[in-house]
What does this fold into?
Amino acid sequence: MRQTIRRYVVMFFGLGIVLLMVLHPLSAFAAGEDGTELQLLTMGSGLLGGLAIFLFGMDQMSEAMRIVAGLRMKDVLRRLTSNRWMGLLTGSVVTAIVQSSSVTTVMVVGFITAGLMTFSQALGIILGANIGTTLTVQIIAFKVTKYALLLVAVGFVLLFNGKGKRKWYGQWIMGLGLLFVGMDLMGSSMAPLRDYPPFIRLMSAAANPLLGILAAALFTALVQASSATIGLAIVFASQGLVPLETGIAFVLGANIGTCITAGLAAIGKPREAVRASVAHVLFNIVGALLVLPFLDQFTILVRSISPTAVGVSTLAAQAAVVPRQIANAHTLFNASMSLIFLPFVPWIERLIDFLVADKPSADQEDEVAKPRYLDESLLGTASLALGLARREVSRVGELLEQMMTKVPDAVFRGDMERVAEIRAMDDQVDALYTAITQYLAKIGQQNLSDDVADAVLEAMSALTELEAIGDIMENNLAHLAQVNAGGTIQITPESLVELNGLHKQVSRSLTSALTAFLTESREAAEAVMAMKEEINSTEVRIRAWKARRLQETLTPEKIASYTMQVDALENLKRIYYHAKRVAKLVVREEGAADWVQADDGVPAAVSAD
It folds into this structure.
């Protein structure tokens, strides 16, 4: 939320400067030759206010669609293959959902950083993103402003009275209505300029396409949305203020300016993420340069596939048809450039690999405890950020499995080197736990659909259970290892076989619980829960056998050995119960608020001490 507020503050400060640059030259001749006067303050406030409503409506639409898509967006991205045509389709679909090619490219950078996607896969998605973003512009070009307030009213009712997805569909509809309200306000504010000779002369002087490309690129970089730039061009065109040639220049400039967001997202990221950002810039800039020499022919082509106005004045005709022509120019440019570039993706990949060479590999030993996948830039798309958090949880699971392999030598043989390794690894678990918890909390601060909200709580619950397993090994089992290392404990070979057997059962339950959580496998989760009787019977059998052996010869040494081994059994069983709680989250046997309750009714935070 704070990032969004800062973005809009900076954006409107910049827009104020742009507005002064545009209107200040007019202030010198605010009265035309016929005595007509311009109300510059009224026009400026109408333009800025309308643009604010326009951008807010677009933001609401984008947020609503991301929430409605929910976890399904992650499933779409799972279907990515090395086939670049599939990547093109996926990029188009995802961008049509989130309504911003910049957002899609930022997501791609995050996925590459997390190791969820290769650079080769990303190239197809980036090209598809340029196609998907044309949907928003096509919607904007429809002249439905007379229904704008009705859309706002219907959306408001659904938003504040609906439940579940109906609520978010209401937000989308209201956002669409606000978008058109903003367009209408901007258009009416700028309407006096179409009959104002000084402004007409000013626009004629600024008809240079290079200036139009530069202005659109700067404006898009400022608002971080190419659709907003082209939407503004459509608003001016609807008043007859912008010809098609200038509108096409805005299209080319907007495609260049939208690269800024992805460029910023790649700062400090791995080299493959930087390559994705470079690819985005390369595609858009080269595409604009390819079209620029053939601007006249491209303009003729756009007019030939767009509607024309017959029987109306020149100005009225321009106002009637140019908005749709600009939208069609945007679609034609992005679709054609994507299809032109796609066959050359392997060669483009080699070129970018050459331009952005790999850095010498550094020693990663000190990087283990640092989060690898938690990308802050993806927090706005909660379902995808959650996927990264779950991937980081898998690293916690890997550490716990490694710690479990060291338990027999540490606890049953008193190997203090293994104890030191367990404690060092648990420090890594604790560091990752803190980072993941904070990241999940940030996800939870977003507007979430019910399924994503439940998934966030499930991830938080599972992470807490896993962290408790690490604490058991670091504190309880490590303490028993120290007792065993004192030399007073004697564990017979027969006892060692029994203890190792239980350890293997518990280790298997932990691995299955991790698999169940990370893959959402109900079968694996049920397998963990089915192990309860086996592990309990093994623990009871070993405990009874040890008690009988103790009764045979009751000595202080055997009492100490019995106590130590029984404590080890108990702690191994507690590890199993934490693993079983993770499994219960997957099968939904326990709700999101029930995870803290152990099977005996004791809160998990207490039972893990």
In short: DSSP finds 26 helices and no strands in the chain. The chain has two domains: 2-355, 374-607. The CA atoms of residues 501 and 571 lie 14 Å apart.
